[in-house]
Amino acid sequence: MTTHKILGLSGSLRANSFNSKLLAQAAHHYPDAEYTAGDLRLPLYDGDIEAAEGIPAEVRKLADQIAQADAVVIATPEYNKAISGVLKNALDWISRADGGAANSPLKGKPVAILSATAGRSGGERAQAMLRLCLQPFLPNLLQGPEVLVAETHNQFDDEHQLTGDLNLETLKGLMAALKAEVEG
Q1: Could you tell me which CATH class the domain 4-183 is placed in?
Q2: Where are the domains of the chain?
Q3: Arithmetic mean of pLDDT, 85-110
Q4: Does residue 94 contact residue 66 with C-beta atoms inside 8 Å?
Q5: Are the C-beta atoms of residues 177 and 142 closer than 8 Å to each other?
Q6: CB of 117 within 8 A of CB of 152?
């Protein structure tokens, strides 16, 4: 049995981020995977920095992790009806790491999207925006099932485990679809 390498990217940097907890649950439901959480604590994209110093080491590391992964799972919070600045900044840097978005390590890579938000929509608008932001990278973007965890304060137990049969079944379905795509 082949162990797949799965890279998780959380658009939230908070220590107790529900999106990071959701990624951990996603990894748990992808059997026999080697899971790594990517670090999105990157400098703000600045073309002058890129011109003077090149691609920062932490961006190069993230781009290499994406390239080495069999699949990427991105969890996005919804901040003011959009993806987080952290996630957008990471995409901006990744688009520069290998000479443009169309040459990025995300090209052709199976990518699954999840979201966990305090609001009622579960991050539906953020997911739609993230799909648009990913288009130039040409990933193999899974269309569903959509994992939209709303009212997060009621959706995780004291051990940080996702609760609710619908949430769990949808997450399991998405991870099964991702695994099938990787094994394609």
Answers
A1: alpha beta
A2: 4-183
A3: 92
A4: yes
A5: yes
A6: yes
